[in-house]
Hints:
Elements (H helix, E strand, L loop, with lengths): L2 H14 L1 H4 L14 E7 L2 E7 L6 E10 L2 E13 L2 E8 L5 E9 L2 E5 L8 E6 L5 E9 L2 E11 L2
Antiparallel strand pairs: 1-2, 1-10, 2-3, 3-4, 4-5, 5-6, 6-7, 7-8, 8-9, 9-10
Amino acid sequence: xxxxxxxxxxxxxxxxxxxxxxxxxxxxxxxxxxxxxxxxxxxxxxxxxxxxxxxxxxxxxxxxxxxxxxxxxxxxxxxxxxxxxxxxxxxxxxxxxxxxxxxxxxxxxxxxxxxxxxxxxxxxxxxxxxxxxxxxxxxxxxxxxxxxxxxxxxxx
Length: 156
C-alpha cells in the first residue's frame, strides 16, 4: 500500500473509532435534540422528563414518575462537558451525582457508561422515527443483564 493510501486509511479508521464519537463537534450542543418537555404514560404512571437548552457547556434535566397523586420517583440530571469528556450526572432522589461518560454519539442517539457503578452501567437516549424520546438504562443484576425503558412524546 502506498504511503498516501496508508495515511488516508488510518485517518478513516480513526474517524470511525469510538474515540472519535466521544468528542462531538460543538460539545453538548450535539445533544440539543434532547431539549424540551417530554411526557408519557405506562401502566398508570405519568412520566415526565425535562431538559434545558445546552448552554454554558451543560444541559440540565429533571425526571419525575407519578401515579395518581403519589410521587413515585424523581431524579436530577446534568450533562456537562468536563476535562474527561462529556459526562451525564444522575442524582436519583437527590443522591450525590453518579457520573456516566459519553461513549457513543451520532444523529439523535447517545450512550453514557460507568462500568464501576452497580446499576445501571449504561444510559441510552435516542429519538425514534416518529419523534418520540426514549431513555433506557441497562446493567447487571445478579447473574443477568436487565434494563428499563421510558418513552415520551413532546409535551404540549
